[in-house]
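Fold these two proteins, one after the other.
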Amino acid sequence: DIFGVGSDPFDIFESFFGGASPFRRAPAKPHYQIKIDFLEAVNGVTKSLVHQGKRYEIKIPGGADNGTRIRYSDFDVSFAVSPDKYFKREGVNVIVDHEISFPLAALGGDTVVETLDGGLKLKIRAGTQTGSLVRLTGKGIKQINSNHRGDFYIRFIIKVPTKLDRRERELLHELESAEN
């Protein structure tokens, strides 16, 4: 061989420039993925992991999301977060669809909405339309390594009854004629 080194092209690089080749990659560290549910991701949780026969306690920070990665010296861990039926995540913000009855939307009144911090009593304004949004600033998901929290949005969905008894039908006809 011309340069007096082995046939590996990276050896040639090393003989010209000295030191290890930047093109050679270290062996990849093992990577584990841990499945957690939505509220575990929001609040943080500790999970166990066994690597090469040794048990590790993995402290998952509140605010973790799909793909959040923690690097350890011997391995990396990322998370797969299962979606929630009620809470929908968009970054650090949360959106929920909250159903209210047609009479409540028309007349106004109180409803209880489930938030990340528990039940919250909300006053519904008379004449609330379907799709109306209420924003609770700072009541969303905590940003990792920060005290900042996103926002929590409540979108009202008006339930239109599918089955009406005779009396309900009469009342709706009266309402319709009063509006006309």
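Now the second one:
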Amino acid sequence: GVQGLYTGLDYWLGQHSVGRGGESDVFYGVVLAGVEWPALLLGTAGAVVAIKRPTLLRVFLIWAFLLSLLVYSWAGEKFAWLVLHPLLPLVLLAGVGVQGIWETRRHWYGKLGLAAAVVALAYVVFASWEVNAAHRADPRELLVSTQSSEEVAKVAREVVAKAKASDRPFTVTVDSAEVADADIDGQLD
């Protein structure tokens, strides 16, 4: 009940100073502008429609997007998957924008809007393929929050192959700034 709400909020407020993820306050703005620009573009069109013809839902979507963007940008923990919180109301606003563009399709600006929506859709398909299939663990991708790449598995296979090929006991030393050196003596599977 109420205690769970307080306990959860108290926990996350306590984690604020930890700053997991290590990203700057503008991280989500960069992700939205760099990767989710179709939602940002069409969501802006949706916000214009919402301001011109407001309904409770449309105004709520603007409020929810702005508030969640501000809260998550302020919060100490920043990871790519948390962009979903401001992105959800933005995508719904983008739907309002597409509806507004469709309603004006007979005018030159409606045709321009439809062309922009088609380009945005093509980009979404392309970008989704890139981040989910082609570069799924590439830490250079804005939507990938990983401390290592798929190269780790390749190096691990090479170490195991060398260990199996060696006729002497094989030792691997792991060095980390946060953990003392650890030796793994012949324990490789």
